[in-house]
Design a protein that fits this description.
By secondary structure, this protein is mainly beta. The chain has no helices and 20 strands.
Length: about 200
């Protein structure tokens, strides 16, 4: 049964509950926050003190840490994924087919990228080589997450979460009736938590 927890979390920094969209917690207990409007990433300690980690990013979206310890950022403005080392040095990890938005790594460290404008999910090897289109025909895919069975969950502009098997088979709608699903997280029991941009809730 779906439960809703009331929040008031719509901020200029787009900091969303449970690290669902733009906030990512590093192994050193720092919190990284992407500011879409300010074109930068902020870095915060758990005591609330913060600094600018990197600037000059064109429309930053979802971030995720790889097993290599590097930070990966969907750069919507130029349809790329950027890779940042711990000292802030950056490089282009891969280029996508239109409006990079959501990111997720599978168990083999392949990176999946949701292309908001293109309506597709692209797949890349751990070295950034294109492995082709994983899924297509989606209505503005937003964010991605893998469940414990290796299925890919994709939130879309239709206010649903679509599920895909590891080989790309569309398994249908996993969750519907949402209100601007901008983030997905799963707990150890497989329960799905979804941040609602328009509703200011986590479902």
């Amino acid at each position: 049964r779906k439960k809703t927890f009331a929040l008031n979390c719509r901020t200029m920094w787009r900091l969303l509950f449970l690290s669902l969209l733009a906030a990512t917690i590093a192994r050193a207990d720092s919190i990284y926050v992407a500011s879409f409007n300010d074109s930068l990433i902020g870095k915060f300690a758990t005591n609330g003190s913060g600094s600018v980690f990197v600037t000059g990013i064109s429309a930053p979206e979802q971030m995720i840490f790889g097993r290599d310890g590097n930070l990966y950022l969907a750069n919507y403005g130029n349809s790329t994924v950027l890779k940042f080392t711990t000292n802030g040095a950056s490089s282009v990890f891969c280029s996508t087919s239109g409006g990079a938005n959501g990111l997720a790594f599978d168990s083999a460290s392949n990176l999946y990228v949701a292309n908001f404008d293109g309506g597709t999910i692209d797949k890349f090897s751990p070295t950034g080589n294109s492995l082709g289109q994983f899924a297509g025909g989606l209505n503005h895919p937003i964010v991605l997450a893998f469940d414990r069975d290796g299925n890919l969950l994709v939130s879309t502009y239709d206010n649903i979460i679509e599920k895909f098997s590891p080989n790309g088979t569309d398994l249908g709608v996993a969750v519907n009736g949402l209100n601007g699903p901008t983030g997905i997280a799963l707990d150890s029991a497989g329960n799905i938590y979804v941040s609602s941009f328009w509703g200011n809730t986590v479902d």
